[in-house]
């Protein structure tokens, strides 16, 4: 999130000095601009691509013969007491029937899953769980601007720029009309529009201040739930950005608990549980084994009655998991892509480092002879396979606009394992191995730009 | 990087980030100003930037009038066949083609085919030349046996543009091969853009042959690499150090794929995770669908960039291959259709020096689909992207030695690229 946001910071247009209380020099003249807050060392924080540890051997240095002894020592010591790559205690999650996701509430687990592999999403944030940081910032406990604030500022600035541009255009037209003698007197500029637009902005600013709660409730539009109205506080200057270990100051500020939890979607859960074996999911206190977890997610993926035990070979969860696992096993960070009208986004290393380059759309493919055996089946499959070109153009347009390239991932659907059209015996690996994945990269081709 | 070549000038500059405004909660109060009652039309609220908005200045209307007048004066110039470059062609109803007796123009460097003493033009070539006013096509005249063939009086009636469209387009069973309106749209568009466009393969053929080009070369190169590379040491080292998967079947059945234990590198972990089978892009291509007309996807045109080196007799491999499809009659191709289509294109791997993203987008085989929707073609390049050949984790293991990871700084992308 951060690279684009921080780079877009322009300090000349400070909207409201109140929002910048913690960085008091920012609204001063440009000459004494506050230094840009230091970005956390993401390379170090997210150095592990998966929530597993590795124990590489020390490097062999040819001109230092002692390095051989070091390697031998490490090999032998690990032979007698091998360290485990897995965490000593399995991460715990709770299945929630209402949201059909798995909740993780333990702070350390949340951080671990986010930092090592970017799993899950904070239920009160856009992706990384940042609710606590935002709350602390509102109470003046956090000196560093949160990325949400920077985004808000940037948007505000853009909005003002647009209003200003529209005003200039209008003035130019009026000037022209006056020169042509079509209007006699300088007409007053239509103030109502700008005022009307400015109103929600005001509210938004108050929101970002976080200490004018009553006025917002008066407005009736936004209820700002449990947060107690706090008296104005002098900002506590901290040299470091506050992290979760500074419990005392959190409590002092009146935030009893981190109310945010991490939501893992079914594919992530199965990957963590079946693939890596680091997550244990329980439902009302009873741990769910992997095979049941698999069945559970398949059952929830379609609108069928949950009693049916059969899993269709083209079950939507199954397809999504096959593709998720495929790209994860190649080293990509896979995140849901619903925001861009696709199934997944592929990040190289992770969202804090760079934008996603690829947007993945899953298309089932019924190439096996089983699917064309009977006429009835054939007609059904044709219906399922039919996607009109406008559908593809729409998706491709969205991806072009956000500078991503669309990847169509065709998943070859195998015939059902048994004749009754259902997978009855559960062997997860065997099921997954029957699918075949093939990727096609799409992009618009413009004749005029490819000639030379 | 993805699409620098897009026709979206508004993306540059300050309003580049308009897209993520949608994240904000919408404020619909502007709707309350609308009046839906009464006889007067409701005023549509103004949102966003408009390219053109009429306002009452006479400056605007005079600019518009001047522009319109310029267009009309350009169109009003009579277009004639100057006698020096007047090319006559005769329509041949049997083949649905036209033939030219005497070639006089540069156009024939890239169109036409010499056969039995005449220069024959494909229907799209004749139609395109006629439409741009460079060719005078005559309807054939029925001649009696005693008439002289070269009599100048025996010239037929000139073919009108409407007549040409009616004559040349269609005729599926004709010898000259069918020309659909979609094919002509694409042909004319690419010709006007300056490309050299040739019909691919033989004219009757619905589907090209499998293309094994470059595959054999690839195999040979890999074999020599393996022999000379001292890979044997690397393999011994790998054998000693990499973790073998233990308890295969049970591990796969119920997981976890990564059994608890000691792992030296993430490469080992990722290798153990790889269980989903993948298409092998280096294997020789095969067809999976029957060769009949039920599959509308086949390479229609070969196009060449206008370099000046083009020779009709030896065109060489084309720069792009285009498959023309009708947007209203076909749907997005299934994997089998796409796979068969790409099997007729050569193996064209990305250059070894290019970047990861470029390599993935380039793919191992590629085709351009021209999807024509009621006369409007949109082109999409489809590439067989080899994600499983470019193992990202291997790159990351090499790249992340540095303290800072190396990624993510200073990609001067501007703002507003959605995450």
How many DSSP H or I helices of chain B?
A: 11
Shape of chain A: globular
Low-confidence parts of chain B lasting 5 or more residues at pLDDT below 50?
1-22, 400-417
Number of strands of chain A: 11
**CATH architectural type of the domain at 312-442 in chain A:** 3-Layer(aba) Sandwich
Query: For this structure, what is the CATH class of the domain at 312-442 in chain A?
Result: Alpha Beta
Averaging pLDDT over every residue of chain B, what do you get? 77
Oligomer: heterodimer
Give the mean pLDDT of chain A: 77
What is the CATH C-level name of the largest domain in chain B? Alpha Beta
Distance between the termini of chain B: 15 Å
Question: Helicity of chain A, in percent?
Answer: 25-40%
> Roughly how many Å is the radius of gyration of chain A?
28 Å
How would you concisely characterize the structure shown here?
The complex is a heterodimer of chains A (452) and B (419). Helices cover 38% and strands 12% of the residues of chain A.
Textual characterization of the structure:
The complex is a heterodimer of chains A (452) and B (419). By secondary structure, chain A is α+β, with helices and mostly antiparallel strands. Among the domains of chain A are: 1-33, no CATH class; 42-80, no CATH class; 147-222, no CATH class; 312-442, Trna Endonuclease, Chain: A, domain 1, CATH 3.40.1350. Helices cover 38% and strands 12% of the residues of chain A. Chain A has helices spanning 2-7, 42-45, 66-80, 107-115, 131-138, 147-179, 191-209, 213-219, 247-252, 266-276, 290-301, 316-329, 375-385, 389-401, 428-433; strands at residues 91-96, 101-104, 121-122, 262-264, 279-283, 286-287, 333-336, 344-347, 358-365, 405-412, 436-444. Chain A has a 6-stranded mixed beta sheet with strand order 3-4-2-1-5-6, with helices on one face. In chain A, helix 10 packs across helix 12. Chain A is globular, with a radius of gyration of 28 Å. Chain B has 419 residues and is an alpha+beta fold. Chain B has 4 domains: 27-47 and 62-78, no CATH class; 83-144 and 153-176, MutS, DNA mismatch repair protein, domain I; 180-212 and 284-395, 3-Layer(aba) Sandwich (Trna Endonuclease, Chain: A, domain 1); 215-273, no CATH class. Helices cover 27% and strands 12% of the residues of chain B. Chain B contains 11 helices and 10 strands. In chain B, strand 9 and strand 10 form a beta hairpin. The longest helix of chain B has 19 residues, at 58-76. The two termini of chain B are 15 Å apart. Mean pLDDT of chain B is 77; it is low at 1-22 and 400-417. Chains A and B meet through helix 1, helix 2, helix 6, helix 10 and helix 12 of A and helix 7, helix 8, helix 9, helix 10 and strand 9 of B. Chain B: This is tRNA-splicing endonuclease subunit Sen54 N-terminal domain-containing protein.
């Amino acid at each position: 999130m951060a690279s684009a946001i921080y780079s877009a910071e322009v300090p000349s247009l400070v909207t409201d000095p109140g929002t910048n209380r913690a960085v008091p020099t920012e609204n001063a003249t440009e000459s004494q601009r506050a230094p840009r807050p230091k970005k956390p060392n993401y390379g170090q924080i997210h150095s592990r691509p998966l929530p597993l540890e590795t124990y590489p051997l020390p490097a062999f240095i040819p001109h230092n013969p002692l390095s051989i002894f070091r390697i031998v020592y490490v090999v032998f010591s690990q032979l007698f007491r091998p360290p485990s790559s897995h965490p000593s205690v399995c991460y715990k999650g709770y299945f929630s029937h209402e949201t059909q996701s798995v909740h993780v509430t333990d702070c350390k687990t949340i951080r671990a899953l986010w930092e090592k592999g970017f799993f899950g999403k904070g239920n009160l944030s856009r992706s990384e769980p940042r609710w606590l940081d935002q709350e602390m910032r509102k109470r003046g406990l956090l000196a560093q601007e949160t990325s949400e604030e920077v985004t808000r500022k940037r948007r505000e600035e853009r909005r003002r720029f647009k209003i200003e541009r529209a005003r200039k255009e209008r003035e130019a037209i009026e000037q022209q009309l006056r020169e042509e003698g079509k209007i006699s007197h300088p007409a007053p500029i239509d103030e109502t529009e700008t005022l009307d637009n400015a109103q929600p902005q005001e509210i938004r600013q108050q929101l970002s201040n976080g200490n004018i709660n009553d006025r917002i409730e008066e407005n009736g539009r936004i209820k700002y739930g449990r947060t107690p109205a706090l008296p104005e506080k002098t900002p506590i200057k901290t040299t470091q950005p506050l992290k979760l270990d500074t419990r005392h100051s959190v409590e002092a500020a009146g935030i009893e608990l981190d109310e945010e939890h991490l939501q893992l979607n079914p594919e992530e859960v199965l990957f963590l549980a079946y693939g890596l074996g680091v997550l244990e999911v329980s439902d009302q206190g009873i741990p769910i084994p992997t095979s049941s977890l698999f069945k559970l997610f398949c059952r929830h993926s379609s609108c069928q009655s949950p009693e049916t035990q059969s899993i269709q070979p083209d079950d939507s969860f199954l397809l999504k998991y096959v593709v998720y696992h495929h790209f994860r096993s190649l080293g990509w960070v896979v995140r849901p892509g619903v925001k861009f009208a696709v199934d997944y986004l592929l990040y190289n290393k992770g969202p804090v480092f760079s934008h996603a380059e690829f947007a993945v759309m899953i298309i089932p493919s019924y190439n096996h002879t089983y699917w064309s055996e009977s006429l009835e089946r054939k007609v059904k499959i044709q219906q399922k396979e039919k996607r009109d070109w406008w559908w593809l153009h729409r998706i491709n347009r969205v991806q072009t606009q956000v500078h991503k390239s669309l990847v169509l991932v065709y998943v070859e659907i195998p015939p059902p394992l048994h004749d009754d059209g259902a997978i009855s015996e559960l062997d997860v690996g065997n099921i997954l191995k029957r699918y075949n994945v093939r990727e096609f990269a799409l992009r618009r081709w413009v004749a005029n730009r490819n000639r030379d | 990087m993805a699409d620098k070549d897009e026709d979206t000038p508004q993306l540059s500059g300050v309003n580049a980030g308009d897209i993520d405004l949608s994240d904000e909660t919408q404020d619909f109060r502007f709707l309350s100003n609308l009046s839906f009652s009464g006889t007067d039309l409701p005023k549509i609220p103004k949102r966003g930037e408009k390219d053109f908005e009429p306002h009452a200045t006479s400056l605007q209307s005079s600019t518009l009038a001047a522009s319109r007048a310029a267009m009309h004066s350009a169109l009003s110039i009579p277009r004639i066949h100057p006698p020096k470059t007047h090319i006559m062609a005769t329509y041949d109803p049997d083949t649905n083609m036209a033939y030219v007796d005497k070639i006089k123009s540069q156009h024939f460097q890239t169109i036409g085919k010499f056969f039995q003493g005449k220069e024959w033009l494909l229907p799209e070539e004749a139609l395109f030349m006629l439409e741009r006013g460079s060719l005078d096509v005559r309807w054939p005249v029925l001649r009696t046996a005693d008439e002289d063939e070269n009599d100048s009086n025996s010239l037929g009636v000139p073919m009108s543009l409407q007549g040409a469209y009616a004559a040349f387009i269609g005729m599926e069973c004709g010898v000259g091969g069918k020309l659909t309106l979609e094919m002509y749209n694409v042909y004319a568009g690419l010709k006007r853009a300056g490309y050299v466009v040739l019909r691919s393969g033989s004219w009757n053929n619905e589907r090209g042959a499998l293309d094994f080009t470059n595959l054999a070369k690839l195999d040979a190169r890999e074999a020599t690499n393996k022999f000379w590379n001292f890979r044997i040491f690397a393999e011994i080292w790998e054998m000693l150090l990499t973790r073998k998967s233990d308890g295969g079947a049970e591990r796969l059945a119920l997981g976890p794929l990564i059994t608890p234990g000691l792992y030296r590198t993430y490469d080992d972990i990722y290798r153990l995770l790889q269980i989903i089978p993948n298409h092998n892009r280096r294997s020789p291509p095969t067809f999976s669908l029957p060769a009949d007309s039920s599959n509308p996807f086949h390479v229609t045109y070969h196009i060449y960039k206008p370099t000046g080196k083009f020779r009709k007799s030896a065109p060489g491999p084309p720069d792009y291959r285009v498959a023309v499809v009708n947007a209203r009659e076909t749907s997005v191709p299934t994997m089998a259709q796409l796979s068969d289509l790409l099997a007729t294109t050569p193996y064209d791997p990305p250059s070894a020096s290019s970047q990861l993203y470029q390599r993935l987008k380039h793919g191992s085989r590629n085709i351009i689909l021209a999807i024509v929707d009621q006369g409007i073609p949109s082109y999409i390049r489809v590439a067989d992207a080899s994600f499983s050949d470019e193992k990202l984790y291997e790159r990351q293991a090499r790249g992340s030695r540095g303290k800072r990871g190396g990624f993510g700084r200073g990609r001067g992308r501007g703002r507003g690229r959605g995450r």
